[in-house]
Request: fold
Amino acid sequence: MNFFKKLFSSKQEKQETTKAKNHDAPKFDAIYTDEYFNKRYQEENIYDENGILDGCLKMIEGYFIDNKIEKLNKEISNHPENLDQVVDEGFGFSLYCRAFELSDKEATLFLSHAFSDFIIKKYGFKLFSDNEPEFPLRFLTLKYDNNGAVVSIYPYEYAAKVLNYEAKFVDLHNRIEANIGNLPSVKDVLDSFINSAKEE
Reply:
């Protein structure tokens, strides 16, 4: 009797572990032609001469200085740990921006661009504006191309969640770090899609 309990309980544990691993795995959404992709998305340059990113990073640096907060990550100002700190410690990044007569939209954009810069430099994502966003807060998207299979992250939408205390930049960064090396290629995605269609 104990043998069967061990046998079936270990099988159930393996299934639960597999489900937990797959929970954060990227999901298949759609297949785009290059023509459609190029029509819908336009690559954004946050490093242009207008200094947009520079201004975002200066606001974040200023927050730490004005609130006398020591950064968790001293080497990279816009590390996700520091971006979470800007929201969680001191009198709050939204209120700080309002003191400069800036709205919550601008506070969200500052955090979004700072996080995007970190992800672009660390993992090689590209930032795009979406001409046909599915939801209003998804007008910016970070994309990572793995041999034709593309992963999307919505930095502005995520920054809005962080400012509303519904999410943490560190959590998203950890999910990216855990999955980036295991991303399927376009062939893997299509094979999986075809096999699942055959099973139905």
Q: What stands out?
A: The longest strand covers residues 140-146. The mean pLDDT is 85.
